[in-house]
Amino acid sequence: MEKRPLGRTGMDVSVICLGTMTWGQQNTEAEGHEQMDYALDQGINFFDTAELYSIPPKAETQGSTENIIGSWFADRKNRDRVILATKAVGATSMTWFSPNKDQPSLPTRKRVMDAVDASLKRLQTDYIDLYQLHWPGRPFSIFGTNPIVWKPSDGPEVDIEETLDAFDALVKSGKVRAIGLSNESSWGAMRWITESEKSGKERIASIQNAYNIVNRTYEVNLAEVGMREDVGLLAYSPLGQGYLTGKYRNGAQPAGARGTLFGRLNRYQTPGADAALEDYFDLCDARGIDYSQTAIRFTTSKPFVASSIIGATTMDQLKHDIAAWEMPWDDDLDQAINELHMQRSNACP
């Protein structure tokens, strides 16, 4: 499988990354192990997880995904074959991350240090290849709005300098090899880069943001940042939480699907979503190409994407989606998708 540079770290990651957030609720430990075995056999060397997972977030399942990865490492003895990414939560009202258990949590130096130690224990490893801040440590209009609709936010926050200082210390300690951001804006990314350059502290290698056919907000400002600053995009939700597969078409609620089980798909239920999705399905039908594989291959066709993060609840889904990286891509198909985008830009930000 094609490998691409992870920022300036010297690490090369597979263009497809194995996402893991369903392991511990929708998927069992055995199923998670099976997925990792298959992904590794297919040339995927990059796995992404988070202290938050599994999804949806609950106090009783927090850390369950990292535990499953850790038991796989312990059994397979293959830690050196995987570039492992995990994340610490940003500013959150989920109190189970707070040291006081009754207050909102912030990515302070102490919280970050405690979080990484807990992740290392669950993952049964002594280092993390890429440690990311899951979302900013400040109030910020992120999911379903930025940068289409600005919604002012209030609440407690921690300075970027303090969180960067903690991440830098983790790299110096050997617990972490590289650092990255997630769900971040162009302002936030440049503040991290500027502070790193000013202070000589560790530089971000990646940004993990949503990026897909109906959400190209990353291209508005962040794509230039990524290309000029050597910060790779780790594109999550290349399938739009399943909407780009067509499985929720015409209001369908398939058994076992995340939307059926948990809801939480408002990002893809906006006023313009149905029309944008139908235009995409019509384009694929006219060309005789698969909805899912085309959507994934779209993300990997972009030069600013280091890796596209896929997740699956069944082995059939996983095999189908991994095979997307081999799908032919050409300028004509790219232009056709761009023309749709110009008519119905970012319907699901």
Q: Could you give a quick summary of the protein structure above?
A:
This protein has 349 residues and is of the alpha/beta class. Helices cover 37% and strands 14% of the residues.
Distinctive features:
11 helices, 10 strands, alpha/beta, 349 residues
Structure description:
This protein has 349 residues and is an alpha/beta fold. 37% of the residues lie in helices and 14% in strands. The strands form two sheets. It has an eight-stranded parallel barrel, surrounded by six helices. A two-stranded antiparallel ribbon has the order 1-2. Helix 3 (109-123) packs across helix 4 (160-173).
Q: By helix and strand content, what is the structural category?
A: alpha/beta
β-strand amount:
5-15%
Low-confidence segments, given as residue ranges, are none
Share of helical residues? 25-40%
Instruction: Report the span from N to C terminus.
Output: 30 Å
The main pleated sheet reads as: 8 strands, parallel, barrel
Mean pLDDT: 94
Secondary structure layout plus pairing:
Layout lengths: L2 E3 L6 E3 L1 E4 L9 H13 L4 E3 L15 H13 L6 E6 L20 H15 L4 E6 L26 H14 L2 E7 L3 H14 L4 E7 L11 H8 L2 E5 L21 H5 L10 H15 L3 H10 L4 E6 L4 H8 L8 H13 L6
Parallel strand pairs: 3-4, 3-10, 4-5, 5-6, 6-7, 7-8, 8-9, 9-10
Antiparallel strand pairs: 1-2
Helix pairs in contact: 1-2, 1-10, 2-3, 3-4, 8-11
